Automatic annotation (TrEMBL):
This is Acyl-CoA dehydrogenase C-terminal domain-containing protein. Residues 245-375 form the Acyl-CoA dehydrogenase C-terminal domain. Coiled coil: none annotated. SUPFAM superfamilies: Acyl-CoA dehydrogenase C-terminal domain-like, Acyl-CoA dehydrogenase NM domain-like. Keywords: Oxidoreductase. It comes from the Bacteria. It comes from Brenneria rubrifaciens. GO terms for molecular function: flavin adenine dinucleotide binding; oxidoreductase activity, acting on the CH-CH group of donors. The keyword Oxidoreductase applies.
């Protein structure tokens, strides 16, 4: 019945979205193959080129790319739903797709000339950490000199274009800087073999660095200065909105495993005319209710925000309210999904520790690492609360 409950939710939120339906069908069709690739990636600390090319051929890195440029043109909510479906299979694959598909969003912050130069066709994969860890000194001739070391380059080994957040400043006043994002050719950066972690191993989120690279100013972007109108680029949080779908998918996969295993036991008990454990029945009901409520919160806030953003007449206050709401619910998606997976494992008891029963351990370790991302930490709610109580934006996104 769990599958039916989730499908009914999908029918409510995504009825008539044929592009999303096509993507979900593709993911389900290749689920077994992706599951194998996910296990391999966990061992080798990165996705294989075969996995990446399969995803590229399926259009997964073009989910956010506008249809006029050959992409799927999904809304933020539909992007999150596609990532949820991937994450039911493997968290690292979903994470790399989430980062790689940002290429379709970043294009909205570039001039047509640079867009055609950096992203000449669909299927371009992006990677990089946009937090301003690097420095960019304006040379006054239309270029800047960039140096820096960044972490969390998820999927960088298979990426085509690399991004890096920088503190952009004039040579005369390096302390008076603004946040920009530099676009590198892959040959400009050195990738470090640093991704030795206890979760999300397959994402290959390596460190990377660049030393004194000359970057044209036109190949730097500011998320507060979109060049293309529309809800994907206004306001500036488009790259993080869809992230909430990944922890949801990890939790859905875990709960599905537990429902299947517990269901076998309950069926056997009922066949023997014995009554199932009341705590087990209660826990299954509670976890399902919490998952359904969380999915509703994620997709309703994303759809509401999209509708607000696409209306030119909406006020800045209305946009800010939608941005804060989606950020707060996104944080809860990470934290609550982790809690759900822990409870699901507890329900199976000792059997949960065996890989033959499922991949609950891998899912929990993935979520433990995911929640260390800025959007999933408890401190994000400090920023949300500040905005709700009338404070100014105190973070790069919220």
């Amino acid at each position: 019945m769990l599958d039916t409950i989730l499908r009914q939710q999908d029918d409510y939120f995504f009825a008539g979205d044929e592009r999303l339906a096509s993507i979900l069908a593709w993911i389900r069709n290749y689920a077994d193959m992706l599951r194998i690739y996910g296990r391999e990636a966990r061992l080798h600390a990165r996705l294989s080129s075969a996995c990446v090319e399969l995803l590229r051929a399926g259009g997964l890195f073009d989910l956010a790319l506008h249809v006029d440029r050959g992409g799927k043109g999904l809304t933020s909510a539909a992007q999150a739903r596609a990532l949820e479906e991937l994450a039911t299979i493997d968290g690292s694959i979903a994470w790399c797709v989430m980062i790689g598909m940002d290429s379709g969003i970043y294009q909205g912050f570039l001039s047509p000339e640079v867009r055609a130069e950096v992203f000449p066709h669909p299927g371009i994969i992006s990677a990089g950490w946009i937090h301003p860890q690097g420095s960019a000194i304006d040379l006054g001739d239309g270029t800047c000199r960039v140096s820096g070391r960044w972490q969390f380059g998820s999927g960088i080994d298979n990426a085509d274009v690399i991004f890096g957040g920088v503190r952009f400043a004039a040579k005369e006043s390096p302390n008076d800087w603004t946040w920009r994002i530099a676009i590198f050719d892959k040959a400009d950066v050195q990738i470090e073999d640093s991704w030795n972690t206890w979760g999300l191993q397959g994402s290959g989120s390596q460190h990377y660095h660049a030393d004194n690279i000359i970057v044209p100013l036109k190949r730097t972007i500011a998320l507060l200065d979109p060049k293309v109108a529309g809800p994907l680029n206004r306001p500036h949080d488009g790259i993080v909105r869809k992230m909430a779908g990944i922890p949801l998918g990890v939790a859905v996969g875990a709960l599905s495993t537990v429902v299947t295993e517990v269901g076998k036991r309950v069926t056997a008990l009922r066949t023997a005319r014995e009554h199932p454990n009341e705590r087990v029945l209660h826990t299954i009901g509670r976890l399902t209710a919490e998952l359904v409520a969380l999915r509703s919160a994620v997709y309703s806030t994303l759809q509401s925000a999209w509708n607000i953003y696409k209306e030119e007449s909406t006020t800045l206050d209305e946009q800010s309210a939608a941005l804060v709401a989606t950020a707060a619910i996104r944080q809860r998606s990470f934290q609550t999904s982790r809690t759900l997976v822990i409870a699901a494992g507890d329900l199976l008891g000792a059997q949960a520790v065996y890989t033959a029963t499922g991949d609950l351990g891998a899912r929990l370790s993935d979520l433990n690492v995911m929640t260390q991302h800025a959007v999933g930490q408890e401190s994000l709610l400090d920023l949300a609360g500040n905005r709700i109580l009338g404070g100014e934006a105190s973070g790069p996104i919220i």
